[in-house]
Amino acid sequence: MINLVASCSNVPIIGDILSWLANILGYLMNWIYIFFESIGIANAGLCIIVFTFVVKAILLPLTFRQQKFSKISAIMNPEIQAIQKKYKNKKDAESVGRMQEETKLVYARYGTSPTGGCLQLVIQMPILFSLYYVIMDITKYVPSFRELTDVQMLKVNTFMGMNLSSSPWELITGDGRIIYAVLIPLIAGFAQFLSTRSMNMVTPSVNGEENPMATSMKTMTFTMPLVSTFFCFTMPAGVGLYWVASSVFQVISQLGVNKYFEKIDIKDIISKNVVKQKKKNEKKGISSKTVADASRYNTRNIPAPKDIEKNETTTTNTNTTETKKSKNTRTSGTSTSGNLASKANMVKDFNDKNKK
């Protein structure tokens, strides 16, 4: 993660955007620190926890939209997969164009778009990367920390007996405080497991078929906690603390989102999406009747995956039968032709003998 953030910062435009966002987040954390200092609690660890919760709360609407897209996607995926099955092994430009058009119409019928789940991630990623900027270098982005002496900084930077600027691995290899060292990484791994597990509840299977998104999420359920534990061992404890706070907030917010969706019918969500999409289309000069007619025309004859396989098998058998018939016809024709030629030769030989 550190290498990824560092590589992004080296790209001129992206680096400038991340630095600008980091400065804004730095001032936010500075206000949090000033508030706690005014009540006699000047601690970087507490500031990181509250800071993480505040930023995550700001991003919560985007998270909600992303989870809503996941719910709709679980219902919509069978139709998308049927279209993909329909045009399987067809690589010509016309077939590819038709597949893309029919896919767009399915998305339009559900009031969403192929980029519906990506937009939220695109917006969130720069903010999350900027968070790492602030946590990794607090003294650079938080003005109040720059004014502290080394002694004051050591006191402020100590949380639960750990120096937040040191990594757990350094604590183990340094003074051997194993219990303190493994505390944050283990909590981070467990919290990440709960966070990913709670997100799996939003991507159910439909008609007994596993949603591909749900399959990937199940894989992440076990891989992400291991990755989190490893990162938190090697990175400063402050980053690990942020990771723990972020995962805890994710679990709490995800449980709330899941409860919300349990009380709402998915059809109501789709209906609202369709109304919003209709307004967008009207602004672009596209009538809803045009979309509906095109959708019915293009997607009404899409067979189910099982029917596609049955049709493909029938077509193959038919082609094989026709090929055999064709071969038999050619063989029969050749045989008949051969018999006529032999009879003609026999007549010729008979006439030649009589002439002699």
Automatic annotation (TrEMBL):
GO biological process: protein insertion into membrane; protein transport
Ranges of residues in domain Membrane insertase YidC/Oxa/ALB C-terminal: 45-259
Membrane topology: Multi-pass membrane protein
Segments of skewed composition (Low complexity): 329-339
Main location: membrane
InterPro entries, sorted: YidC/ALB3/OXA1/COX18, YidC/Oxa/ALB_C, YidC_ALB_C
The entry's keywords: Cell membrane, Chaperone, Membrane, Protein transport, Transmembrane, Transmembrane helix, Transport
Membrane-spanning ranges: 12-34, 40-62, 178-195, 222-245
MF terms in GO: membrane insertase activity
GO cellular-component term (any): plasma membrane
Disordered as annotated region, ranges: 280-356
Pfam annotation, one family: 60KD_IMP
Cellular compartments annotated: Cell membrane; Membrane
PANTHER family per UniProt: CYTOCHROME C OXIDASE ASSEMBLY PROTEIN COX18, MITOCHONDRIAL, OXA1
Family: Belongs to the OXA1/ALB3/YidC family.
Annotated protein name in UniProt: YidC/Oxa1 family membrane protein insertase
